């Protein structure tokens, strides 16, 4: 246990802070009164625009440094005199499968450098982004944090599992305090709408806007546990403030939603925003052999008990917000 701390007046480093989740954390840190926020992001996926709101709220207290977590000298320089490090920089699971060596350098070596610098600088807490991918297809549902990681067969999940091990070892070797958060299926504003690795919700919104039905690969029975980016950012801030250390927590909603239900909910969210009825019904395409995980459902009682965290945004509200954000931000 460490002492509970306020984030007001704290100096903070956010790696990957120009991305979807990182920028939501920066917004909440601004509202919490952080004294200084440095974002380190190489902008392979993150965008300056994601930090525009925080920049106008924070002025000179926010600095975006365009650089890589593998640049050890830069990481050490930016970590010195920081109180808290939020470590989010990583590649998508799909890119890790296509470029495993790059993934090794980014997720594993890069994380080592971030932890080495945090230990050397004596930061009070590292809050690290892990993933439900560490479970692979779980054997028990709802899945709690004690579930083993041996069903994972993705490089991304392997790297996240190793990162959790690295965090534990840095805690044991150097007393570095940390909390790792295993996010389940993340969605919300600032999801990537431009890149190669956009997600199913973005592709479906594009189809629906063209008057085409959302396309589900397979029977749509596969389930996920969706959690909104704002709730994830709240979990990060609570983890930074809380006295707990050397722990991992599931961050999800403990609600199972099938792909077919997700497609119907998205259609409803887009129709309610249009106030028009649509006759679209989801279509099915051939199964794709990319994702062997057919079910996700988290036990989130540990985060509720230790961090005082509970999700606040329902899937319906979250999807309506995502649709409005997407309509305002998509390229014509
Ligand atoms: N989105 C999800 O569904 C999900 C689920 C579980 C875990 N996570 C984890 O949460 C974290 C944040 O994810 P996100 O959804 O915001 O993704 P994101 O791609 O929007 O953000 C990641 C950021 O890291 C930056 N980055 C990547 N490699 C870097 C490097 N070598 N040096 C510096 N910056 C680098 C990218 O430019 C991007 O801004 C990641 O660690 C991710 O693995 C995400």
From TrEMBL:
Which lineage?
Answer: Bacteria, Bacillati, Actinomycetota, Actinomycetes, Pseudonocardiales
Q: What is this protein's name? A: NAD-dependent epimerase/dehydratase family protein
Q: Name one Pfam family in it.
A: Epimerase
Which organism is the protein's source? Amycolatopsis minnesotensis
Occurrences of domain NAD-dependent epimerase/dehydratase (ranges): 12-252
